Batch of 3 targets.
Target 1
Amino acid sequence: MKIEEEIRQPKFKSANEKALINLIFTSNWLHNKQQELFKPYGITPQQYNILRILKGQHPSSISGTEIKNRMLDKNSDVSRLLDRLVIKALIEKKTCPIDKRASDVFITSAGLTLLDKLANKQKEMDMILSLNKEEAEQLSNLLDKSRGT
């Protein structure tokens, strides 16, 4: 469905305004789809992002500060998210031996198992945009360009 129909707004001031509104709308739509995907597994998209970051570091640890730097949502409360993942036994936090104020964060075997379960679901999520490889690359390049990179 076209953005004009989705938000019931037939006119825009400019093509750039329409593109920006469409991008924001689509971002929220994707976020809602992710929430639906992760809900049965008891995690949020932000928690999934942390688990993926930790899997990339596995078996090494990473600091909470570095996790925050790598997060897709830079406004996430990483400390709170980490505490919830510890309660779910998906990650482990240990006091950093070099800096007692910091924690080293590891993914647990339960966290890795959950990511394995979600791997096929993530493939479904990747296909939700209904784009072929060339279109996906073009979209990614245009989004990079829009951020000035």
Target 2
Amino acid sequence: MTKAIVIQFRRGRKNYTPRHFLIEIHGCDSKEKAKKFSGKQVEWHSSGKNKKIIKGIIKDSHGNKGIVRAVFERGLPGQAIGTEVNIHDLEVKK
């Protein structure tokens, strides 16, 4: 299991996609290293009393500095930006 940080929504100049997030992985600093995480499962755990878990999949790298793009099954709340997510080493079947 690898730790990572949610950086931001994936967005454009005038719109954003609420299920797509940019994630920075600890120790991943190049596009080649980020490509290795493609297809892995991501989990975000809420810190509230309900302890919700929202799962997603890493789709591809984003840029040249090791950032990856993850698509979650439903959108994360705004409070998730800056928090940690867990990346599991299991490949998700497509």
Target 3
Amino acid sequence: MGYYGRLEDKIRARKLRKRGYSYKEIIEVISASKDTISHWCRDIELTDDQIKRLIEKRNTGAKIGCFKGAKVQKERRLAVTQKLRELGIEDVGSLSKRERFLVGIALYAGEGAKKDGDISFANSDPRMIKFMISWFREFMEIDETRIRGAMWLHEGLSERKAKKFWSDLTGIPINHFHKTYIAKNKKGSKKIRKHLHKHGIFSIRYASTEWHRRLQGWILGVLDDRISNAL
């Protein structure tokens, strides 16, 4: 570029600077280095409003940079989480009948009812409920006409939709559901529930003293000293 071309760039750069443009903004318009722009415009004083604008723009840019950085970190974290989950699924692989039997015992030992004769398993996770209803049917001589369902639901959620959801999932007819327990919202409370279960909490219920006692025996068999001592 010749002398007159550089002179035109200098004049243009100074005009932009006088209008409050930052060096970065000027460089986007004129092909010149930051040092050159700074040299051309070093004697130009900006107004207070122009300085305020540049500071606000710089802060906004920094915030955008932080948001972008946080987004990248989040995407990386989600990718790692997904990969670890996939590896976990591969680690487990397919479950044999005996493995399903032992998993069900362990789940019931943690979440199931202990009262004599009361076989009951409650959870808000549909996967847990689906596994356990299948487990009961696979490993116990269940009389389907005696299986019952029960729901615990927050006030304001659709009881009809929740009943249909759990009935479709478990195969338990809606007319075999006990009366739904509705958790009332506290009047005047400013507390916001972050984890509101859309379909509530569901409980599989079956009354059988014989099978409940046998189930307790299964749990004792898993927790037997012979197994504990081998660990």
